[in-house]
Structures are given as C-alpha cells and as structure tokens.
Amino acid sequence: MELRRYILKRLVQITIIFFVILTVLFLLFRLAPGDPVSRMVDPDMTPEDAEQLIHQLGLDKPLGIQYLVYLKNFFTGHFGISFHYGEPVVDVIWNRLPNTILLFTTSIILSALVGIFLGKIASWHKGEKTDSVMTIGALVTHTLFLPWLALILIWVFGYKLGWFPINGMISEEVWLDPDAGFIAKGLDIGYHMILPLTTLFLIHFGAYLLIMRSSMLETLKEDYILTARAKGLEEKDIRDRHAAPNAALPVVTSVGLSLAFSINGGALTETVFTWPGIGRELVFSVSQNDYPLAQASFLLIAIVVLISNLVVDVLYAYLDPRIRY
Amino acid sequence: MAEETFRTETKGMERYPGLTAFLEGWGIFRQSLLGKIGLVLLIMFALMALCSYIPPLIDPMYNPMTGVDPVITCSTGPSRAHWLGTDFMGRDILSQLLAGARVAFMVGVSAAFMSIVLGTAIGMTAGYMGRFMDTFLMRLADMIMVMPTLLVVLILAAVFGQLNIWTIVLIIALFRWPGVSRIIRGQTLSLKQRPFIEAAKVAGASHVRIIFRHIMPNVLPLAFLFMTFRVTSAIIIEAALAFLGFGDPGTVSWGMMLQWVWKTGHMFKAPYWLLPPGICISLITLSFYMLGRAMDEVLDPRLRKEDQTD
Amino acid sequence: MALLEVEDLCIDYKTKNGYLKAVDGVSFSLERGASLGFVGESGCGKTTIGMGLMGMLPPNGVVRRGRILFEGEDLLRVSAEEMRRVRWRKIAMIFQAAMNALNPVQRVGEQVAEAMLVHNPSLGKEKALKAVEELFELVGLQTDRIRDYPHQYSGGMKQRAIIAMSLACRPSLIIADEPTTALDVIVQDQILAEIRALQKEFNIGIIFISHDISIVADMCHDIGIMYAGQLVEYGPREDVFDSPAHPYTRALLSSFPTLTGKRTDLVPIAGETPDLVHPPEGCRFYDRCQEQIPACREKVSRWVAISPGHKALCCRCEMDGR
Fold first, then answer.
1. Element (H, E) at B159
2. Is A267–B239 a contact, with Cβ atoms under 8 angstroms apart?
3. Are residues A144 and A224 in the same domain?
4. Under CATH, which architecture does the B30-309 domain have?
5. What is the pTM of this model?
6. Does some domain include residue A234?
7. Is C60 on the interface with B (CB under 8 A)?
8. Reported ipTM exceeds the 0.85 cut
9. Mean pLDDT throughout B296-300?
10. Residue A86 belongs to some domain of the structure
11. Cβ contacts of B42-50, under 8 Å, gap ≥ 24
C-alpha cells in the first residue's frame, strides 16, 4: 500500500534529521570553549568514580572514537550521571517523559479540535458578530505571552479564588493514602493539569481557529460544495460532511508546523507550574549547569518533536486519500 | 476609477513586478482595519521606545537598570514619583517598561532583519540554482523548521554560558529563516521563467549579476512584508528566554521584568508590577500579528477574492 | 403540460457598480424527454440560467422577475426547504468535467449513494450502494471502482460518475453545464452518446449548456442562442442551423464550417460584450454586428417569428420582414 511507503519515507527522513541533531549536539558539547570533561563529569565526584565515568563516556579517547562511543551510549541509554540528582540521567528523564507527553498531547489535541470546531462556526457566520468576536478573541489569546498568562491564571484561579492547585502534578495526601485507587490518582493528576492545560489551550486554539476559518471560506467556494448543494443536501450537512473534512486538512498541516512552537510553550508552562516534565528539566538543568541532564533532555525533546511530526503526517495521510493511495 | 489611474501609473514597470506588487499591496493594506489598528499600536510602542530616553534625564534614580529610589527599599505601588510603582529594589517600573519597548524593537527588528536577509539569500540561491543545491537547502530548512528555537537557545546557553543580547538576536535569526526562504524560493522559481531573465541570460549576464540585479529587486519587497511575522517570534523568544532567567543581565526587557516579579515572589502581591510588562509583550505581539495578517491579505490573492465578492 | 416553462426570467447580480443584468427576459419551454441547448460565449448568462433553475444562485444573485414553472409549480415561489427537496430528486445537474465536482476526500460510490439517501433516507446505506452498482453499470463504469476516490479516476470516468450521480433519483430534468469541456474528443463523443442513450431510456428532459455549438447541434432538439444576458435566437435545431436569422448566430456558425465535420476553434468575433450594469437601450450586439443599421441602436429589439417555433431578437429581421 502507498501509505506504508509514505510512512517509510518520512521515517527515513526523520532518522536522518535525528542523526544530524545527535551529531551537532556531540560536537557542541565536545568542541565548545572550555573543558569537555568538566561538562560531562560532576566536579564533586570522587576521582575513582570520575575515572570510571570518563572511561565509559570515552572522554579519554580521540574525537572519532568518542563519537562512536557516544552513539553506542545513546543507543544503550547511557547519558552519564546528572550533577544535580546524582543518578543516571536516563532514569531522571525517563520518569519525566510520560508527564510531558500527557500535557503536550492533551493540549494539542484539545486546542486543535476546539479550534477546528469554532473556526467552522466562525466561517459559517462570516461577517456577523459571532465571527468578529471569535476572530478577535482568537487573535488576542493567541498572542498573549504564555508565561505571563500562566502567572495570571495562577494568580486569579489559584491564589485569589483558590480553585485549583498552582504547582506540581500530584498532591501528596492522595498519593500517600494507601486507600486511594487508580481513579482517585488519575483525578488528582487531572485536577493539577487544569491550569497548565488551560494556559496551553488558550495560546494554541486561536491559531487553529483562524486557519480553519479561512480554510473553510476557501473550501466553500469549491465546486464539490456546489455539487453537494445541487444534490439537495441541507446546509448543515454540506458544512459538516463536505466542507469541514476538506477544510481541516490545512489545520492538520499547521499543527505539524507549529509543533516546535508548541514544545517551546510546553517547556515554559511546565516551568511556571513546576510540572515535572522534560521541558522543565531542561530549563532547570541549564540553570544548574547540569550538562549531562541538559543534553539528554534536549535529545529527548527532539525525539518527541520528530515523532509527533510523524504522527501528524500519518494523520494527514489518513485524512487525505490523495496521499494515502 | 481610482484603480484605473493607478494601473496606468504603474505601466512600464513590468520589469519590476515586485515593486508593482508592493504598491498594489499598499493599496489593499490601507483598507484593512486590523492592519490599521496594528499600525497605530506599533506607533504607540515606538513612541514608548523613544520616550525611554527621557526619565533618566529627569533624575538618575529613573535609570531603568541602575537607578534606585533612595527612600524606597521594597516594591511599592503607584505614587506621584513612580507612576507605576517600583520593583523590589526601588527601581522605577515605568522607566523599565519604556526601556523594555526599546529592547523589544531592537531585538525584534534586528533579528527579523537578519533572518530575512539570510532567508532571502538562501531562498534565491535555492530557487535559482535548482537541482542539488535546491534539495540540500530546502532539506536544511525543513530540519531547522522543526527545531524549537527557544530550547535551542537554551541548550546553547548551557554550553556557552551567559549569552548577551546580540548573541541571542543572532541565534534567533539563524533559526528563523526557513519560512522566508521557502516563499522567496517560490517567487524566484516563477521569476526565472520571465522573459527579462531569459534576455539577461542570453545577453551573457553572470549568475551573480542576474540574482542581484534582476531577481533580488523583485523579491525584496515580498521578503520585507514577511518581516512582521519574524519580528513577533523574535520578541517572544527573547522575552521567554529572559523570563526563564537566561536573558542578557545588562538589559531591561519586559521578559526580564516578569522574571523579577516571578523570582522575587511578587506575583501575588504586586499586580502593578506583574501586569504592565505582560500586557506590553502581548500587545506588541498582537499588533505585529495584525499587521502580518493584513500583509497576508495583500500577499495571498485568494484571500483578496474573498473580500471582493461582497 | 410542458415539463418546464420559463417566462421572462430576469436575474441580476449585485456588484459594487450596481445591478448586473446577467439574464434579461429569457423565456423558453421544454417538453418531457425533450432537449434544449443554450449556446453563447462565457459570461452570456447561460450558466446563470442553470443555477437559477436549481435555485442555487450565489448570495449576490437575485431573481428580479419571471416565472419558472416546473411540472406546473412555480419554483420561484416555493420555500427554500421545498426547493431543496426538488433538487436532484426532480432536477439534477451534470457539472463540468474540468470542475472539481467530486469531493476529493470521499469515496465516489458514497457520494453517489448520498444523493439517494438525502431524498430517501429509509433506503439504507447498503441498498443505496447496491443501487449505485446498477448506476455504474448503466454508465459503463466498473463496479469495483465504487470504493475508489475521485483522484483515482480519469477525467472521463469522473464524468461518467457524475452522470451516474445525476440519475440517482431518476429526475425528470437534467441540466448539463459544459459536461464534456476539457475531455478529449473521443471520450467526449462517448460521454455524449451515453447521455443521449440514457435520456431516451428514462425519458428525461435535458437542458444542455455549452459554448460549443457543434455539441449542442449534436444533442438537442431545440437551440437557444444567448448573447449578453438575452436569448437572441430560439428554435428547432434544423431551422436555426439552416436559416440562422440573428447576425450573432451567423457569426457563431461561420466558425464551424460543417456540423459533423472537423471542429475548428471558435473564431472570435471582434469587439467586446456591452457593460451589463448599464446595458444599451437598443440591440446589445450593435457594436459588434456586421449588419447594423441605425435603427438597431435606438429601438428596443423585439422578437420576430421567422417560421413556426423559430424566432429571433433582431431589429433587422423585423425590418426585412423575414
């Protein structure tokens, strides 16, 4: 099937991009001014431990060999020891990964779906008040400065009104309670997620709304819309069954293109809400000069971005038969 | 009727379709409400940036970075001496806000300018040279496009330590050219087919001469119209970086101000300090964005048609 | 009772400069199972007539005057909801092949089935798809292509699919707007033969809209020549071709040496169509007419009967007493 070839092709492209990133990162950490050893090995380590780690990372070898060791370590999951946590970097970020994925995917899916839905409605009321309110609202929320919006939400809903927790992902009293079941814990996470999710949602849905709106207006001029109308379909069905599926395609493309933007926002949100994800870990590690952790977090984020790109591509192919067949 | 005269005026300019497009575009832009609001807001911010030079002249305590009100040792609300209040060290928030406007323009415009120049050069090269060069440059563009710029700057800050404002601007520019280069490449590809390029080729003009004499004047107006979007992203990235504590410690940017509110724990008690910088960043982004949308209308003939039907 | 009777139909488009009279005082009638062709250059209003009959004028289009009696009912007086029910069930449309008339993200079979299900929801999807199979066979499409998407079809196949779709509800009238434009000549002939055969089989009235006079000559009993929003000549095919009365018709015909022979490109008639926002008082063809006389300019042209059923809107014909 064509779809398989398409995915394979994208997979190859993504692998190449990833290798380039991997290599650039390697060169950056080894060749930047300063001592590479001090960047990869915690200065507070005992000399014996440090020796062992230097050997494991290949820092005592020539650059070419170092690179091979680096690749081998990457594929076997050895990123060195975090300066701050004193444990293998891989353990630190591995725990953070699901948290980031949870917040990131939920926010993207939610904002894309709501954006598509509202954009459809706005286009249907083109030139009316509903349309103006939605368009202006989308423009304004989309251009809000994300960390500031997060602080405002915390201030209003967390501090003034006290409705939602303002940091972290879990409450200790729920998780330490032996009677708390899976559902209670899930609800607790959901409760903590409301404000971070709202922040990301407010920033993102506007862009999708605006794209969907103009895409809808464009699609409604297509000839097959005329056919649908001639067939005697009700306007609602013309909009939902014929216009919307076609109009949503550019939105999916733009979700893919804005993934980098979304992950930036994700890192900022995680940081402000102390959500234990990789983005926050990256910010934190950079501020603590925890180089091994910073490097690994960045790589992992790159992987997340690339894989989400692939997912979006596959979704697009699924929605547009012209690519699938 | 006005359109009619406009057309006759621009006759004889077929050799510069880019310029013609620019003039026509301005005509359309003037009709866009969003564009006009954006422009007014921007002029307001520009005035703020200009005014930023005034407070330090009145009294050294109004210096946004180093000036401290001698009688104030903690953050205070708006007063006669400090219209927007002071920060935790007794520095004047209004002066900081004005200085922030200057930094925002500086960062936004210079980063956008650099990325546009870079994007135009790369787009023209890719479009004009074609073949391997085209594939290579566009793959590179694809790759850079998927990179989250903020996090890239962060990782560079991790390796190189504290970055000063110009380094930040440079990095942003280096990572923000792919969008422009794609558009310029498309434009170059279509220009390549025009008779006057063919004529220049036949006349024996070199590639460099064709690119600079014949293609560049035609794509440049388009490139600069796209600058607005780049300005926005540069401002946001710098602000976010400063907010996270990795900004240039020698400049007072709005992001920096938010970082101070946040880190000193004033976000719950000093709304006079929390609100202004955030509103400014958001509004300047909004105004460039509105300007950009108006430009989009100018550049995308399909959007234009939509407006002509009613 | 005629299947369709259109009287004095006037359709305007609202533009920045005023009302553009796209269709001005057009009258014609069509018997059940008969066919009528409209010929004219682009912008003469022929497509607007089709859209007007379907009740699908663009938002800026208004019917200023006239009656559209279809099976005895004035379609201009029925509600939007009733009109929706008339569409496709009674009057179907075959769109241009060049047009992107099929939804690219839906399977062709489903799009055809949808036409049935809209008007007969109780049919059920399965039965509808069964019926689609029959339709596909009828128009000469392989039934295993039902689950394909439009981009997997060739131009001719798409056109056949659209014809199949038009037959979905067994309408009594089909409006075919440039159904074969952009198809190559062989496919074009096949499609036209197909339409003719189906028309006969199901006794469908067809209104054929084309800029290509030879196609219309091939297909239709009656022919209407349109110019600048007006019907300028109307009559049985033989009469119009053998003794064209209006100078515009003659100009059109002169570019086709023989009806059945090789087609040549339409030789453009010098000059431009008049401004339809402020149409001239007299004959609209005056500026381009080879046979103009001063009277054409001032006098409002009137219909002149040339022979029974054959008439022309021309001042000179009136003078000549033809």
1. helix B149-160
2. no
3. yes
4. Orthogonal Bundle (1.10)
5. 0.85
6. yes
7. yes
8. yes
9. 67
10. no
11. B42/B284, B42/B287, B42/B288, B42/B291, B45/B101, B45/B104, B45/B105, B45/B280, B45/B283, B45/B284, B45/B287, B46/B101, B46/B105, B48/B97, B48/B98, B48/B101, B49/B98, B49/B101, B49/B102, B49/B104, B49/B105
